[in-house]
Amino acid sequence: MLKAKKILLCVTGSIAAYKAVYLLRLLQRDGASVRIVMTKEATNFVSSLTFSTLSKERVLIDFTENDNWENHALLGRWADLILIAPASCNTIALMAHGICNNLLQAVYLSATCPVMLAPAMDEDMWKHPATQRNIQQLIHDGIKVLDVAEGELASGLFGKGRMIEPEEVFKEVIHFFSKKERFVGKKILVTAGPTVEPIDPVRFISNHSSGKMGVAIADAFVAEGGVVTLVHGPMTEKVEKGINEVSVQTAQEMYSSCLKELSTFDIIVMAAAVADYSPAEKSNEKIKKTQDFLRIDLKKTPDILAEAGKRKKENQILIGFALETENGVENALKKLDKKNADFIILNSLRDQGAGFGKDTNKISIFGKKGFRKDFPLKSKRELAYDILNLISQHP
Ligand code: PMT
């Protein structure tokens, strides 16, 4: 499986460095070409001689050796995968903050290939909010962060933070190379679920969206190597690990979250059911039941899809949904044009099994120059792959 694959195994200062020796053997036995980068701290745990003997390659530790400069940029380009195992708490923090104070960091910052890391540290360090923030940042940056294991730690304490076993890291590497890679290196923004617009501290305006459609799309992208940010309203759907999840409440919050880094995304799919109107004023106290009729003024919310359409960059693919109850095709085509989308996916509440809350949906996709593709009723998960197929064929 790993024949002709080039892996740069980076070893950092952790007692788990000994596991990297066996990991190297596993990768080599499966046919991978492996080169090793170590931090100075890692050499306190395992000698570089062990790695150079087994890899039959010079181990790289410093920026210079015998007056020769190590070309970190080329190392990152040589590799099909950079695998940092074990990744110490310090290395994770440096990566998250883009600090370049050793060769490994320079390789990481100049790498053009995917990066995977297997953290290793004490439980308290692992659970510390600073570490968890750093991990979230790395996931956001598109790094595949592997789990940690529970058990005896170097401190003598028991808990979470051990590096997973070399066999498990190896399995992840195999999985990484065996999956379809259509969206590797692509940054994708997906919206999902409803928004809730507060009337007072007790009541709100919302809709029946469960988030299933958007989550199925986000999961499919991540399974195919994409770096996915999912901005969603309140929902109970579970989200695949590795997705950068941003949870919001209101349409205004969803708008702000989506627009923050909008220009950095290659693909944008807006499956959220965003409220079109929100109470013009939110009462700070619960509104009392004193009148027979209560009038609440609503104001238009910002249209996220339309704004994304206005700001659309040349190579960005923008996809919106249209949820209709009447004149579906006509309304979908209007949205395609008005919102400057590449595709609009129409689903209608008139179709049995389609729309909110269900595991199935029935969609038609409309695109430029009269493009139209109809799909039969299918699971939202299957449809997500139909949508990905369409995007991957988009010029
Ligand atoms: O979440 P589920 O239960 O699985 O249900 C899936 C779904 C029915 C919610 C989904 O398939 C769907 O149709 N989502 C879009 C719902 C919707 O709000 O449609 P719309 O026709 O009102 O909006 C058109 C497009 O503009 C949508 O892409 C919407 O995300 C976007 N929009 C709308 C209003 C707004 N203020 N900002 C927006 O970006």
Rg of Cα set: 25 Å
**Regions with little confidence, pLDDT below 50 for 5+ residues:** none
Shape: elongated
Q: Can you give the helix content as a percent range?
A: 25-40%
Bound ligands: ligand PMT
User: What about the largest sheet?
Assistant: 8 strands, mixed
Task: Write structural notes for this entry.
- This protein is α/β, with parallel strands linked by helices and 395 residues long.
- The chain is 33% helix and 25% strand.
- It contains 13 helices and 23 strands.
- The chain has helices at residues 17-29, 48-55, 72-78, 89-97, 103-110, 123-127, 129-140, 166-178, 212-223, 251-260, 304-310, 328-338, 380-393, and strands at residues 6-11, 33-38, 64-65, 68-69, 81-87, 115-119, 144-145, 148-152, 158-163, 187-192, 197-198, 204-205, 227-232, 244-247, 267-270, 277-279, 298-300, 317-324, 343-348, 360-361, 363-367, 372-374, 378-379.
- The strands form seven sheets. Strands 14-13-10-15-18-19-21-22 form an eight-stranded mixed β-sheet, sandwiched between helices. A five-stranded parallel β-sheet has the order 2-1-5-6-7, with helices on both faces. A two-stranded antiparallel ribbon has the order 3-4.
- Helix 1 runs parallel beside helix 2 (48-55), helix 4 packs across helix 7 (129-140) and helix 9 packs across helix 13.
- The relative contact order is 0.09.
- Ligand PMT binds next to helix 9, helix 11 and strand 18.
